[in-house]
User: Fold this.
Amino acid sequence: MNRALTILSIIGVPVSVAGVIFQWPAVMMFIIYCLTIIALASVIGRGTDSLAIVMGPRIGGLLNATFGNAVELIISFFSLKAGLINIVLASFTGSILGNLLLVAGLSFFVGGLKYKRQSFAVQQARHNAGLLIFAVIVAFVMPVVFTETMNKQDTMVMSAGISIILILLYMAAMLFKFVTHRGVYQGKDNAEESKKEEETPEWGKVKAMIILATATIAVAYVSDHLVDTFEVVGAKFGLSELFIGVMIVGIIGNAAEHVSAVYMAYKNKMEAVMEIAVGSTLQVAMFVLPVLVLLSLLFSPRMPLTFTMPELVGMVTAVLLINMLSTDGDSNWFDGAVLLGAYIIMGIGFYFV
Amino acid sequence: MNRALTILSIIGVPVSVAGVIFQWPAVMMFIIYCLTIIALASVIGRGTDSLAIVMGPRIGGLLNATFGNAVELIISFFSLKAGLINIVLASFTGSILGNLLLVAGLSFFVGGLKYKRQSFAVQQARHNAGLLIFAVIVAFVMPVVFTETMNKQDTMVMSAGISIILILLYMAAMLFKFVTHRGVYQGKDNAEESKKEEETPEWGKVKAMIILATATIAVAYVSDHLVDTFEVVGAKFGLSELFIGVMIVGIIGNAAEHVSAVYMAYKNKMEAVMEIAVGSTLQVAMFVLPVLVLLSLLFSPRMPLTFTMPELVGMVTAVLLINMLSTDGDSNWFDGAVLLGAYIIMGIGFYFV
Amino acid sequence: MNRALTILSIIGVPVSVAGVIFQWPAVMMFIIYCLTIIALASVIGRGTDSLAIVMGPRIGGLLNATFGNAVELIISFFSLKAGLINIVLASFTGSILGNLLLVAGLSFFVGGLKYKRQSFAVQQARHNAGLLIFAVIVAFVMPVVFTETMNKQDTMVMSAGISIILILLYMAAMLFKFVTHRGVYQGKDNAEESKKEEETPEWGKVKAMIILATATIAVAYVSDHLVDTFEVVGAKFGLSELFIGVMIVGIIGNAAEHVSAVYMAYKNKMEAVMEIAVGSTLQVAMFVLPVLVLLSLLFSPRMPLTFTMPELVGMVTAVLLINMLSTDGDSNWFDGAVLLGAYIIMGIGFYFV
Assistant:
């Protein structure tokens, strides 16, 4: 599949450029852009992995922590530049719901069809559960509740303050995980796995860096044009900004990663699944989004950390659900079905809202 | 006690008929109807149990899963037919709060007076806890949050969609519990108990079926007239629709079952207690209520899945409370007191609201 | 440090009196009052401890349970008398957030710098977690949700009813902890520690009683004048009633206790830390506040149990967070950082709101 995605990305970029030049229809371009980004995201992911292996665990961890959601950051950046604040926030909602419900759900379900019970480290799951409550329930809910009666200026100051705390705490979490408590709370197969992975980088150092740079520029180019199609597509299919953000933009940046999570579940590597589903959520919520809020201070309009009520309630309930299902350190097909059911319910909701 | 209830049901039905014919006062009839339904519900419950034993575990499980809340379904059906949508939803709230707080609370409390600590299967409790979060916090909260700005048509479509997912997931839960993971997550005394019960059906196959059919018809008749008394009783005693639904209609359908839960706790059969308290809640939330929502599509007015805010917050907090108290697999008198305290607080709330 | 606080209290009281007589500026007096109360609270705490040791565990437990938050009760009483209902409720919010996030956070953090992992009794933590959900999420959320459409009279009746249930359940919790289940759910170091403490009362019985009486009268005097300065200080520094209540009044009553919690964490006595952080929260939420609501029935204006939305959401999310972090019976510096992060976020919120 990796190969197909590489080819798709090699084809997708020139086709996108052609479409821009010859002004092909927006809906068609929307689909081409989405597919291209999915493919490029996979290439970037693999480039990061290769480089991470070559550079050793410390810099590698850092690379993954910062570059892991590069595509999301880029799409959001261009949406922000185009003034589409609601879509940016919605795409983060979509990314978080997608990771917690769709990716974890599919992985648990597919893995559970093969294995009766799949287990992962309880302590790690609880550690992440606490962070999810912090990021989503404390840091995202507070601004909405407190800023109801606030003016724009104060709302933005509060959003910036919370963003700084989120980033600091994310960095502290990295310090905790990789330095002070390295291995203390982690499960076994995680350790083994990372050992195995270290042996085979897909690309050499220089090649990986070139690929990474090229693909990143390509994603930037495509994203820049993708955001221009949202309005037409939304109008054409009667989709709200919220739905486009949550259910489309929020997914494409991670699609390839999602597939590999399901594959990991099928190989019973549940630590890796949880790392992709929950770890990636934390990265988005505690690093990518706050960075973007701070970046937006340089732009107009600025982006406060104020989700809509449906987004907020969706994320909070998703966190409560995944926390309850994951903190027993055990998954099965039915757990997966529950998460998927929740995802579908939210999908219906965002369609009609 | 079973005998007294049988006699009460045999007396109650003709008295109800007499009251209808001679038009006795509404308040008196309201009391007669309620007592008769409590008695009939007990008879139906025992009839279902007998038939379930005779028919073997598979069909038996199915029978229990569908017939276990037949009385509730019937009362709700006639309330719906009478256009009393708010009372129907309130009665489901009452059934859920009654099961999670009153039944579990009384059982923990009474059982805890005899035993210092009573234990039940942790994994089963966690499994149910996840489903409670799914049904009550995801499936019930979403429609209220999402439909605030929706028109009636969309609200109903969303409610129907969520109902279908709830029913599918309930069926999946049965599949999980009785087929793919039979015995995997269950505690010991549950298995033993069901074995013991299988030995002694109260009634034979034919007798059970006749009793079941007769009692069901009787419940339908009484329920049909019960719903006509709500308005007069409410006006007379200054009770809101919400209070009548939550605190009266929501209780009578399960009253006999509640008593047997407390009795089970006294005999230290906590698996059975949890099955009645939490299992029954899940059945109501994931099967009976969604079925009714779908049935209502054939009627006018249709019933969307939109509880009032007090109902919703009541159910959500009840789920958080029972989940925290039950997922340690251990109960005592104080846990019971906490649940009862919560029930009383909500009772006060629904009285004044 | 105890000595410094004793001296501060001995100096603080006459200085306060002087300030009142010579009408020193309000802001200066506000600071003097706060410092004096912090010092007096420490003296009262040590007096209670001494008396508790002399009187034996039963009466001692009772003393601690009622006198442990005497200062808070006194300040609130005088705020209430001055009609500052919002500040009283805000100070309880502040006390609860301060205990759950600031005290536990600092303790976990400081303790975690010395020890890699610190553990405490899981069962006790779960027991407290259930009570936190009951008190904060059920008992505090319900009145706000239910009384939205209620008149003042009904709101007050409901508040009083809930307060009575809270007090009864608090007494039941004492019965559970000290009588029926004494030692059943408790950890080891708690038992040892109380033994050790029993050996060395700081003051004799009579001396402790005299000190207690004197300090209590002094706190009453200072508090009575402190509440008069709120308005001027708020206006001068642009602080809302909510901020003064949550972030200042809510802290000073417990400041000395907070320091000792951190000291306990440094000595790895985590049971004692949890007792101060969570136990004290429960005491405030289930005893001191409800008593005050009932007392307010004798005054005008009466104080209903209706927090503002930011207060409520702050407390609910704090409970969810501390429950997730503490029910694994294990803490580390990062858990502490998370709690502190949440406290700062809320501090920012209450500043701007």
